[in-house]
Prior knowledge:
Blueprint: E1 5-10, H1 15-30, E2 34-39, H2 51-54, H3 64-70, H4 76-85, E3 89-93, H5 94-99, E4 111-114, H6 116-123, E5 128-131
Parallel strand pairs: 1-2, 1-5, 2-3, 3-4
Amino acid sequence: MANKKVAIIASSPGLETAYKALNIATAAAALDAEVAIFFSFEGLSIIHKDAEQMLKLRLGNEGLAEGFKKVNVPTVPQLLDMAKESGVRMIACQMTVDVMGLEKDHFIDGVELGGAAAFLDFAFDAQVTLNF
């Protein structure tokens, strides 16, 4: 299928959300899809420079940390690097950034600021749209 597009919204907190969104994004990019992730509300923590301190597993899921290590799942920073190298667009919701008093320099390199319209312009043509 030509011009495959995957649109992902990451708006929930936690390490689980980061892994879900980034795993799908990097897999889709590996399958030659164009991918954009729209980070909003608590999902902004995934692309924050302090993500490793901010992202925690939900209560009851602490055992996943050992499982991630055991099967060599890449870390969130590694997945973010893979996503960037694969051309995944990472869009921080401008409205949420403003409401939370954040600035572009709070986020990792390669993140663009954009409103919902910027994401929707991409998502209108996506074959797959996911929300985490």
